[in-house]
Fold this sequence. Notes:
single chain, 146 residues, alpha/beta, 6 helices, 16% strand, YtoQ family protein, YtoQ_family_protein
Amino acid sequence: xxxxxxxxxxxxxxxRDEIRRGAEAAGLDVVFTAPxxxxxxxxxxGDHLGETPxxxxxxxxxxxxxxxxxxxxxxxxxxVVVRFGDKxxxxxxxxxxxxxxxxxxxxxxxHDEDIVHPLKEVDAEAQAWCTTTxxxxxxLRYVLKA
Length: 146
């Protein structure tokens, strides 16, 4: 069985590569997709549409352009992994998790224990909460090979 997995959330660590390597080492047939992880490029996604009167409107038009990719890839995925890091608030990741919940899309969260409380609603809708990328790979292994 082939599987499509969208890797949402935190962009400042190598967690996506760890999951990709783990899936490859386990011989899993998984296609991974992700948002644009180049922060300046993501922030500038709508700049070609013209100058804006404020940072709010620049962010607004770039968020809409980014949403074309994000929504499409989430909708096309079989499962979503939503990563919350410890350094920044990932409101976009929380939004992606909510979008998955609204679509009835399977998702798992990946975060440390110290942010369980602020993510209780996000985790309550997830099919699993993982604290390591190895746990994510094990879920994929189980789903694809059990």
